[in-house]
């Protein structure tokens, strides 16, 4: 007798599937509207009733973005600082998290609780203090002010520490017996084993820097250092409501994040489902 290989699902399964599908449609609809709006003329964008598909397909909006504003400069600023902040943030988070997980020293747990408590403080309340520090170092209106404050991330420290707590000490002891120093053990043994958690952290850190608006807005006043969120906001300040051009610029803004997630999707999901974020 041939066995039925198809699993029968309950009614609740299909109800949940429909609800998730509708929710996903509502979430992705603004992105679809933005992508389609990037190929519409300004007149069509403001027409009533609005059109869903472009009636007069055009690529002029994309060229206008580069012609009417230094969009390439904004793009390089955001991507460059985002990649640097991501790389340095992963290294500092991995190193500090490893110390809190594998080293035993006085007041270790108390210090970590203080660090963890700082994660509860809204970043907006820290901005005035951080800004005063940047002014003291004369780093405002420079690339340093867009990078240095992002080099240490408390959430990243917590994430990496939780992973290294689950890492068996046998790996560390075996590396030390083979003659590896403490730093080499972290770099050659611990970090390669944390690839999934590191990939998830890379996405978080890049997006935190890439999407940052308030800090670049208050810490820079020269268009040379504008990032994409500030640059797009300046479109309204300079040219009013140019919605078609805004849609084209926004479509290009989301491209690096989509590419990053596309290449790291598998490891990103593994990092979220692994023991790295367990309490």
Task: Describe it.
With about 280 residues, the chain is an all-alpha fold. It has a single domain (about 60-275), classed as Orthogonal Bundle (MetI-like fold), CATH 1.10.3720.10. It is about 70% helix and about 0% strand. It contains 14 helices and no strands. It has helices spanning about 10-35, 40-45, 60-70, 70-100, 110-120, 125-135, 155-165, 170-175, 180-195, 195-210, 215-220, 230-240, 245-255, 255-275. The N and C termini lie far apart (about 50 Å).
List key phrases describing it.
279 residues; mainly alpha; MetI-like fold; 14 helices; 70% helix; disordered C terminus
Sequence-ordered SSE layout with sheet pairings:
Blueprint: H1 11-37, H2 42-45, H3 60-68, H4 71-102, H5 108-118, H6 123-136, H7 154-166, H8 169-177, H9 182-193, H10 195-210, H11 214-219, H12 228-239, H13 243-253, H14 255-273
Helix pairs in contact: 1-13, 3-13, 4-7, 4-10, 7-10, 8-9, 10-14
Alpha plus pi helix count: 14
General shape: globular
| Quaternary structure annotation | single chain
Low-confidence parts: 275-279
Give me a quick take on this structure:
The protein has helices at about 10-35, 40-45, 60-70, 70-100, 110-120, 125-135, 155-165, 170-175, 180-195, 195-210, 215-220, 230-240, 245-255, 255-275. It has about 280 residues and is mainly alpha-helical.
